[in-house]
Specification:
This protein is mostly helical and 372 residues long. The protein has helices at 6-17, 32-39, 44-60, 64-71, 78-89, 91-110, 113-140, 147-162, 164-172, 228-371, and strands at residues 179-181, 223-225. The chain has a domain at 74-201 and 212-226.
Length: 372
Amino acid sequence: MGRGRLPALIGWCLIGWGLIGSPRRTLGQVDLETATAELYGLAPEEFVARRTALVRQARTAKDRALAQRIQALARPTRSAWLVNLVARHQPEVLAELFELAELLAEGMRTVSGPELQQLTRQRNTVVAGLTRTAIGLGHQQGHRASESTRQEINDTFTAALADPDTAELVRSGTLTRAVRWSGFGLPGVDARTATPPEPNDTDQDTGRDTGQDSDEDDTGGAEVVDLEPRRRAADRERLRVELERSRSRWASASTRHQRLTDQLAELTDRVERAAELVRTAQEQASDAQREARAAQDRVRECERALEAARSACTALVATAERADHELSESVGRLRRERDRDASVREQLGEAEQALAAAERDVDRAESAWEEK
């Protein structure tokens, strides 16, 4: 594997092992991000009970600040909840709205009257389609929208075309109230953001509702804003907050980058050591295979030698059997010769005795002759 691909591979391993990822503020089993995502995915009538349970859970985890921030999350109106459903379940549908917002912003500066009218008609078509989508999603969950709710949804999507802050809220799926844009100013975000304020030391952790839910009408409550100073102040504050967040994210990212760089270097070293061990093991395996093949050759040679020895042994046994047979025959012949020799000796003895007797007879005859 090339060294250029090694860091990428290790990076995927780090992600797969869960060693890297975005940090999350979590205490116990509750965190603000998860609580916000869960609450604004619920129907308005389920919001307060679940928020109370999450606040209780944060208090159990001894996190008073988190409990206060969850308690500060405002229950969405019916129309805001339906808009949030679109962002949560069909975010790709909103992409057309935001693309159209860019075209409208550019058209206000560059295009002529007829072209701007065409963009306006396109805006009405897109907004009407998004409104139908929101109402359809609510209907799937058993909620039928009234005409006033339908109008508030339509107004909110229209406001998102003119106000980047409203567009961002719509995109986030944490809208709390419907918004109606009027005039050329950009509305502020103070009354409709789902981001709760930071807790302060004067807040009392009594577990009571903040009052954001009790007087709110699910079929109304859309705000109308048309103040240029508020827009400029909101823009300045938003830019300041974004700058602080960017600085904080940059510092955190730098620290994390250095930590991950060190981890990557360590893992790279481990991988290289492991690769060296693998190469050594492969070489040892190759040597063992060569030795095994040599041993097999020696075994085959021994088997051939053994087969030759067996053949020679068989021949020797056959030769020994023939020799034994010949020896037996020789012994038989020798015994027969010995028996014949004994018989001849016996006959010779008898012949010698007969000869001696004959000599004695001759001697007696000669003696008798001489005496005559």
